[in-house]
Structure to design on (447 residues):
């Protein structure tokens, strides 16, 4: 997960502060020294770290926080505010042109993930009822056009390509004409990259920019490149004056310094983040939510967003009625489990819940394969058995266990836990009995 080491170290530092009750100026200096080291180890730009520490220290001392009843909490609040400010205060989305189509130009070095990111953004905008068109303007990298066509097809986003042309400016211009004729309101241009910065690359990008006049120029940066990401961003900004950043591979980066440095150094917002290999793993960047996650405060808003995206509102209302009438079946259980899987890895979702002990969670192994085994058990049952598990006798149970590759003991344990959960849901339908309701729950995934 992004910022994992940084989050662990900051949380340990603030845990020490909270344990002191009252804190002295010396305690604050010691804490800020640890924060400084943690940020530097996370590959945050040195000047950015220096300014950040100075700002936090000045605010903590200037507001007489050390004399307050909860000094540690006040210091954490200031750090949270400064982290949010460092990453951009608020989320910034795509700026759309008043005249269709809106042109988005994707730029960056080779290997940063431009082509896949272009398709991911196309898919994200499609969810917002846009009609994006992907444009294959990388005429140098072998199979770049084919790659865009493949990922575009997977996202069900059309791709414009002129295979017989090696002129990216011409291809871009023709794509815009194509979009106007076919009603595409967003054109996403996947440009060529290089293994390193050079004048040839910049001149070509500048030519495309001058000819198509894009509303957005998004710089795709690999978060794992650390300090070098800042150097790349500075160079691209000097030549192209890009409008925003897309950070990729945040799921594999344990440092994350690029996210904390790029905005401060270039003044350009991080607009989107890629946090996984799936084509659906592209999200808008929320500085306040990221700051809260780094400090172990959870991220409820993102959790809600994921839930709203994964769960069907009509099905949720129907489920509520079934729970109230005590008609919750194994079919309903299976449907809810599958929707929950669509929200992403359970390990990541749990970390978004405020108050969870992040240090303890790091040693917890959530075996998501158990969900697969439960799914296999349920799908091995007949529709009648899923509606009424009470009819399961020993021969039926043996058939289900064999068919799902499980033991009869595993099936019995799951059925027992399912019944416990149904009892718990019955309690939830009566608020007066809720206090006695927490005896069951989902099958134990923490082993």
């Amino acid at each position: 997960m992004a910022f994992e080491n940084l989050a662990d170290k900051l949380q340990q530092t603030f845990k020490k502060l909270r344990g002191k009750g009252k804190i002295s100026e010396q305690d604050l200096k010691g804490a800020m020294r640890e924060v400084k080291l943690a940020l530097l180890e996370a590959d945050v730009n040195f000047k950015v770290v220096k300014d950040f520490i100075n700002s936090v220290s000045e605010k903590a001392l200037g507001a007489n926080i050390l004399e307050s009843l909860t000094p540690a909490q006040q210091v954490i609040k200031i750090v949270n505010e400064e982290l949010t400010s460092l990453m951009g205060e608020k989320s910034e989305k795509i700026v759309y042109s008043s005249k269709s189509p809106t042109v988005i130009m994707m730029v960056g070095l080779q290997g940063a993930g431009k082509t896949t990111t272009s398709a991911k953004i196309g898919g994200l905008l499609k969810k917002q009822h846009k009609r994006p068109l992907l444009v294959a303007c990388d005429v140098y990298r072998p199979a770049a056009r084919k790659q865009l066509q493949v990922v575009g097809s997977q996202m069900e986003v059309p791709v414009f390509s002129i295979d017989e042309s090696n002129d990216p400016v011409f291809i871009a211009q023709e794509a815009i004409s194509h979009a106007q004729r076919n009603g595409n309101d967003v054109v996403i241009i996947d440009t060529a990259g290089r293994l390193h910065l050079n004048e040839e690359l910049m001149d070509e990008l500048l030519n495309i920019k001058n000819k198509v006049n894009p509303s957005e120029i998004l710089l795709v940066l690999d978060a794992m490149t650390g300090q070098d990401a800042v150097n790349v961003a500075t160079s691209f900004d000097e030549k192209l004056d890009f409008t925003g950043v897309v950070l990729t591979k945040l799921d594999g980066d344990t440092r994350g310094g690029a996210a904390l440095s790029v905005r401060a150094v270039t003044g350009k917002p991080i607009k989107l983040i890629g946090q996984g290999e799936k084509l659906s793993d592209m999200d808008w960047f929320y500085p306040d939510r990221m700051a809260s996650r780094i400090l172990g405060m959870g991220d409820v808003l993102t959790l809600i967003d994921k839930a709203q995206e994964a769960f069907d509102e009509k099905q949720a209302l129907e489920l509520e009625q079934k729970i109230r009438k005590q008609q919750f079946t194994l079919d309903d259980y299976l449907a809810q489990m599958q929707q929950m899987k669509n929200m992403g890895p359970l390990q990541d979702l749990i970390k978004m819940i405020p108050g969870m002990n992040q240090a303890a969670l790091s040693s917890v192994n959530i075996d998501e394969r158990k969900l697969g085994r439960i799914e296999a058990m349920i799908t091995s049952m007949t529709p009648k058995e899923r509606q009424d598990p009470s009819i399961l006798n020993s021969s039926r149970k043996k058939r289900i266990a064999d068919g799902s590759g499980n033991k009869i003991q595993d099936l019995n344990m799951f059925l027992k836990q399912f019944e416990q959960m149904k009892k718990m849901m019955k309690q939830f339908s009566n608020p007066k009995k809720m206090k006695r309701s927490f005896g069951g729950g989902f099958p134990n995934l923490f082993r």
Remarks:
- Residues 431-447 have pLDDT under 50 and may be disordered.
- The chain is about 55% helix and 10% strand.
- The two ends are 21 Å apart (CA to CA).
